[in-house]
Design goal:
Elements (H helix, E strand, L loop, with lengths): L1 H15 L1 H9 L6 H30 L2 H18 L8 H23 L2 H4 L5 H32 L4 H26 L13 H10 L5 H30 L5 H29 L1 H21 L3 H29 L5 H29 L4 H19 L4 H11 L1
Helix pairs in contact: 1-7, 1-8, 1-10, 2-8, 3-5, 3-9, 3-14, 4-5, 4-8, 5-14, 7-8, 7-11, 7-13, 10-13, 10-14, 10-15, 11-12, 11-13, 12-13, 12-15, 14-15
Length: 405
């Protein structure tokens, strides 16, 4: 249910609605608008990168994942609702609110991921992670669907984006708050306090120093760093690419993202089972090859039909890679230090979230709005991720994790 709840934020705010509105409406399509958007996201991810391992270590020490998750949820909901006050020319306000709301969203994402190994045994971790991501994409579908219904209604009354986009931010915040409520009512904190972990900095430093003991986890975290750079660029810039490069209308873009959320849910759900059946590395290899094909199709697309194909392939790969990556980290992490190691996972993902979208933004700025070169540039990250995946032995990594507990 928490995956269902928080996905509305990424779908509506980061991917489908506010990103395109920021570039076209708030910043008035200025040459630096796309770069400013990616810079705001990068600033929030930098803050998460610095704090995630410490938050995770503190949560393990005090068995306080659920408490910290509540704080993160309230922060994201409040600052998302505050986006209601943005509009043409409010660039500084919009950037500040995106930085804050995305920081709390990403922190909550790390914390909820750390519950995974408490809810599934090692043989089912792939499909349980897949269930969560699948429900997440359906949750994004709900938030975006409600927003689209509202937009279509008020557009007929003559309202513009400057009038209806802020209201969709309120809708997203309310859906997030309501759908996250079951998590705080029913989810149990099964972990026990580990007071020896009470000094987060020392524990994180110790974890990094002991990285040689977890060579497969370490290599996979580096792999995540690269392939997530590509994924985060696609998430942050999908609507901008659709509107600026493919000339989609605002409503066309939302419909596209709605359909892509369905394919992403299918990808997350089905690949969770495939991952448990054929193995973690083989399934992730298939996913990264799919991402590379998707980038090529998006770059070559001149008409809307081929771009629809590329977008839905991206949806399948996104759902699959997010579910598979989270499951692999859980499989390779010491059972009594889950929050700490998922903090490192968050560190890798958020580091990727800094330079992935920034690469795209910088290329489009340097080459005067050439979004095709922007999407091609981030494709390199998937190729590097695929190369790094070779040589990872998850069973060896699992044994190392169990021996360290």
């Amino acid at each position: 249910m928490y995956d269902f709840a928080n996905s509305g934020y990424t779908t509506v705010v980061i991917t489908a609605v506010f990103s395109a509105f920021f570039v076209a409406g708030v910043a008035g399509k200025a040459p630096w608008a796309t770069f400013a958007w990616t810079a705001a996201l990068s600033a929030s991810y930098l803050a998460v990168l610095l704090s995630a391992p410490l938050v995770g270590a503190w949560a393990d020490a005090h068995a306080a994942k659920k408490r910290l998750l509540l704080y993160a949820t309230v922060g994201c909901v409040v600052f998302t609702a505050a986006l209601y006050f943005t509009g043409p020319g409010t660039v500084a306000l919009a950037i500040a609110l995106i930085v804050l709301s995305n920081f709390f969203f990403a922190t909550g994402e790390n914390l909820i991921a750390a519950f995974l190994t408490e809810l599934a045994d090692s043989k089912a971790i792939g499909r349980v992670s897949g269930w969560g991501w699948a429900f997440g994409y359906l949750g994004g579908l709900v938030s975006l669907g409600i927003s689209l219904a509202y937009i279509l209604t008020v557009e007929k009354q003559g309202q513009t984006g400057a009038q209806f986009v802020p209201v969709t931010m309120l809708i997203t915040a309310v859906v997030f708050a309501l759908c996250a409520t079951p998590t705080f009512l029913f989810l149990k904190e099964r972990a026990r306090p580990h007071r020896e972990l009470a000094r987060p900095w020392q524990r994180v430093i110790q974890t990094l120093r002991q990285a040689a003991r977890f060579q497969d986890l370490r290599r996979f975290l580096v792999c995540i760093l690269f392939y997530q750079a590509g994924i985060q660029a696609v998430i942050a810039l999908a609507a901008i690419y659709a509107t600026e490069a493919m000339k989609f209308t605002f409503v066309d873009t939302i419909i596209l993202i709605l359909v892509v959320n369905i394919t992403a849910a299918i990808g997350a759900f089905s690949f969770g089972y495939l991952q448990d059946a054929i193995g973690h590395v083989k399934s992730m290899t298939l996913v990264l090859i799919g991402w590379i094909i998707m980038i090529a199709l998006a770059y070559l697309a001149e008409g809307k039909m081929l771009f629809w194909v590329a977008a839905n392939l991206a949806g399948l790969c996104m759902g699959a890679s997010q579910a598979a990556g989270r499951a692999i980290v859980g499989y390779l992490s010491p059972p009594d230090r889950n929050a700490e190691f998922f903090g490192l996972w968050g560190l890798a993902v958020k580091a990727a979230s800094i330079f992935g979208p920034l690469t795209y933004g910088a290329v489009t700025w340097i080459f005067e709005g050439n979004h095709r070169l922007g999407i091609l540039s981030v494709g390199v990250y998937f190729v590097v991720g695929l190369v790094l995946l070779i040589g990872i032995d998850v069973e060896r990594g699992r044994r190392a994790a169990l021996q360290s507990s």
